[in-house]
Write a structure and sequence with these properties.
This protein is α/β, with parallel strands linked by helices and 324 residues long. It folds into 2 domains: 229 residues, Rossmann fold (3-Layer(aba) Sandwich); 63 residues. It contains 10 helices and 12 strands. The strands form 2 sheets. The protein has an 8-stranded mixed sheet with strand order 6-7-8-3-9-10-12-11, with helices on both faces. A 4-stranded antiparallel sheet has the order 2-1-4-5. Strand 9 and strand 10 form a beta hairpin. The longest helix is centred in the middle third of the chain and has 18 residues. The model has no long low-confidence stretch (mean pLDDT 92). The structure holds iron/sulfur cluster. The site of iron/sulfur cluster (SF4) has 12 residues, from loops.
Amino acid sequence: MTEKLIEIKNLKKHFPVKKRWFQKKADTVKAVNGITVDIFKGETLGLVGESGCGKSTLGRSLIRLIEPDEGQVFFNGKDILKFSGSELRQTRRRMQIIFQDPYASLNPRMTIGSIISEPLKIHKLVRSRQERMDRVEGLLKEVGLRSDVLGRYPHEFSGGQRQRIGIARAISLNPDFIVCDEPVSALDVSIQAQVINLLSDLQKKFKLTYLFISHDLKVVEYISDRVAVMYLGEIVELAYSKDIYRDPKHPYTQALLSAVPQIDPKTKRTRIVLKGDVPSQVHLPPGCPFHPRCHYKIVDRCRIEKPPLREIAPDHWVSCHLAE
Ligand code: SF4
């Protein structure tokens, strides 16, 4: 895994928040605040962090479901933020998303056949009705559903089945890259494993690359090759999954992992309880954004100077002055 499919450079997405009557200028929520990361062909990059840290905004910005404010996103070497018209449409076809809530993302008034075939029609990938139906039936088979569901509606299916329909729609256009945005969070644990295994099988079969967003560190450990940990709109640690789970270097990652139940008693971790709440993404703390909650014996530098994301071991990146 050395060939880059996606290169994200200094990506930013800030949202204005409503002005109070005495304010001259609206504040901004810095949801994605200067992210730089590569995603390699065929890999699953896990993206973890607490709710509201900017994970979904990053996933949606990089496929231009929402427009970023600043930065570059190279897809196969081309900056897609400069694309418009047919160039953008063609690229969008190759970058898809699977949403957390499969019910909300499926039009309740459309049959399953229409939901899955609509992208094929829009992108003119099939020439006849018969070809379209054959393709839809093939896609349903790929995700483990029978073809007799074609005329039924989303409300007639369970959560797991609906997510399978969402996956069929996402792979219908033969994408290279899929943002999986909390794809199993709304499902029962037993169903989660089935959907994760389905995503893994499809990845191997169609050589897909995933950005897998989740707050569930166990799920991310299972499916990811590498893991990026996000805090207040920035990546604070990035490494191969086995390295980050065996020996997390950033105090925030350590705290997140300490809360994950361990089956193997040899890997038992002492629970680290983070101080206070996540600071506001409107008024970020000076220096290291994590310093108000850090359990390390922080130094003056932590309060003044923002730590850069630096490579402390091969392919292991951490933004902490004290990590080594
Ligand atoms: Fe903690 Fe300082 Fe490292 Fe920030 S730079 S994570 S405050 S030790």
